Amino acid sequence: MLIKSIFVALETQIMIDLTGIISISGQPGLYKIIAQSKNGIIVEGLADKKRLNVYASTKVSTLSDISMFTTGDDKPIEEIITNIHKKENGGPAIDNKADDKAVEKYFAEVLPDYDKDRVYVSNMRKLFSWYNALQTTGNLKEKEEGKEGEEKAKTVKAEDKAAAKKTVAKESGKTKAVAGVKKTAGVRKTGSA
After folding, report:
1. Count of alpha carbons within 13 Å of 52, Cβ hemisphere only?
2. DSSP string of 23-45?
3. Which domains does the chain have, with CATH numbers?
4. What is the phi/psi pair of residue 188, to 5°?
5. Helices and strands, number each (H, E), in the chain
6. Tens-digit pLDDT profile for residues 127-165
7. N or C, which end of the chain has less CB nearby within 10 Å?
8. DSSP state of 173
């Protein structure tokens, strides 16, 4: 029983890493951010490996920031793609050009609590095309947030709280000492009255 709970805990920590992968409005396919240029960013197409400059005025969406509507909280695309990856054991998903009923049925298996009123078949097709593009180009890399990172984060938070308490204590001490003095910010007193 203990081994099973450890395996489940490890399984939930592994997610697909989508950082640096973007979708550009008006352009087919997915792109990986390579560098920053003077006027925007330089990206490389995942499928054709061609590089192009994307200007700052172009509408760009990072996949790690996109989420889908559910009956509860919105689910990030990373979690949904991770579910597809687990379901298919790393293989390709359903073809995005399949009929609507098959696409809806497959999506319901991957994300059973999706909001049927706000998630359209076109959204599902786009997700499956993105997953298949990532899978065929070998960009479905897993990221793992281990316990060391969590412990480090807890330590940093504790240090931040301690520093904040010290700052509050110093500021409250100054406030008490200067409580009777009226401050005039931005006014310089010169000369005599």
Report:
1. 13
2. EETTS-S-EEEEEE-SSEEEEEE
3. 12-142 (1.10.10.1650)
4. -105, 130
5. 5, 9
6. 999 999 999 998 888 876 654 444 434 434 444 444 444
7. C
8. H
